[in-house]
Amino acid sequence: MPYSAEIIEPTAWPEGVIARYLTVGGGTIDLALKQIRHTFPDGILGTRGLTSATCTGCPATGDFPHWRSRTGVWAGTWDEDIPAEEVEADARAWAQAHAETCRAMPRPAA
After folding, report:
1. pTM of the prediction?
2. Among the four 21, 29, 45, 103, which has the fewest Cβ within 10 Å?
3. What is the average pLDDT across 64-77?
């Protein structure tokens, strides 16, 4: 019987996905940049950046905001931006650790 190989083309990533990790169970963890509504410490409503991590095999998710709120003795509470590289590194570390242990298989398409 002659040897044959099938070329498997990668599927397109969903819109907004910046990185994808393969889990041991065959699912993926997608990292995506999102804009969310956020109430600033002074009460003003605005939008802020967030990197989300979503596993397609299990319900695990991780949200990594691009800011943190700080409280100071004299200045009250304010938001401090976190460098995008730091946020992305944290999200990638979470995705890698989860991918190494998640055995859940993604639900098949109907």
Report:
1. 0.78
2. 45
3. 79
